[in-house]
User: Which sequence fits this backbone?
């Protein structure tokens, strides 16, 4: 029964979690929150993670009831993500692995989301829709790789939502995406927005730039409310995602759709995908909300799979990378 400590910190969330043989023993997390209208820069985010990570590790081990000697490996996010936060987490992981004399496991952040979704849901071989602040991908497994069938051609859907939140001065706590979702529930007017789908790929940059151009005038004139803008963005962006995902279901003939990433928490997105899946005779498998948002347990679970497959990371190969595509990883633990 491998027991692995996982450390995540690719963006504004930093976490430590312990997983043992498919059971999540602990999952501690902290978030760097900026004032309304602001995003998070790499430097301050990295300093936040440096200040709290060791405390999270201690809390995760205490909650799991394990000592360092009980661990079989230390996993960390190698990438993709923001340079400074990734570097902080990698440095802590390397130090702990050497101090405790345990194997080091460098995990692809995107693969961590997928493996956590597979662990917590009933879909062993699903089509995957991965939606977050940094990534938007439609993924299927084939021949030891998670193949990217379609993706965003520019900004990720979560980043698009976050930037609308900044434009509207929506608070960043608990998260801008959650606050946009709540406002969207009160929206009553669907404002026409650019809708760009190219095969299995999507593009959100035109939608975002159009909103940035027209929102001030619409709000000032009273033609639209912030709620209407949030509603319109969600309906348009999520319809684009549903369209490309339906195409991918038809292509792969998959019977399960696994929804992962921070935006997977959005209930309106789940509702639209559920309607589409029912029409196609497929089952939607959204990841548990506790594991949609970036967390250490998902990195630990991917680390467990890597450890079982003998994919241990040498110290000399443990550098971070801000660009690390999902399909670069050899998925040796799957047939």
Assistant:
């Amino acid at each position: 029964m491998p027991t692995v400590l996982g450390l995540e910190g690719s963006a504004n969330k930093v976490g430590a979690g312990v997983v043992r043989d498919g059971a999540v023993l602990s999952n501690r997390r902290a978030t760097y929150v900026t004032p309304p209208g602001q995003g998070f820069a790499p430097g301050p985010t990295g300093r936040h993670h440096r200040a709290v990570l060791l405390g999270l590790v201690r809390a995760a081990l205490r909650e799991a009831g394990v000592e360092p000697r009980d661990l079989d490996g230390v996993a960390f996010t190698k990438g993709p993500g923001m340079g400074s936060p990734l570097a902080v987490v990698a440095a802590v992981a390397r130090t702990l692995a050497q101090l405790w004399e345990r194997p080091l496991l460098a995990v692809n952040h995107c693969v961590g989301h997928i493996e956590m979704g597979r662990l917590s849901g009933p879909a062993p071989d699903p089509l995957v829709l991965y939606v977050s602040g940094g990534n938007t991908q439609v993924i299927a497994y084939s021949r030891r790789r998670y193949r990217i069938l379609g993706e965003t051609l520019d900004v990720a859907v979560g980043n698009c939502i976050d930037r609308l939140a900044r434009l509207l001065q929506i608070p960043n706590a608990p998260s801008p995406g959650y606050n946009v979702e709540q406002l969207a529930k009160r929206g009553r007017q669907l404002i026409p927005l650019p809708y760009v789908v190219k095969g299995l790929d999507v593009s959100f940059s035109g939608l975002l730039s159009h909103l940035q151009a027209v929102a001030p005038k619409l709000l000032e004139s009273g033609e639209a409310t912030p709620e209407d803008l949030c509603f319109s963005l969600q309906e348009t962006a999520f319809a684009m995602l549903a369209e490309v995902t339906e195409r991918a279901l038809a292509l792969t003939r998959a019977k399960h759709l696994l929804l992962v990433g921070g935006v997977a928490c959005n209930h309106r997105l789940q509702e639209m995908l559920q309607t589409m899946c029912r029409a196609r005779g497929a089952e939607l498998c959204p990841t548990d909300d506790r594991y949609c948002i970036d967390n250490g347990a998902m990195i630990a679970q991917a680390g467990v799979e890597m450890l079982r497959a003998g994919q241990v990371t040498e110290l000399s190969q443990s550098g971070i990378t801000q660009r690390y595509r999902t399909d670069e990883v050899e998925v040796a633990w799957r047939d």
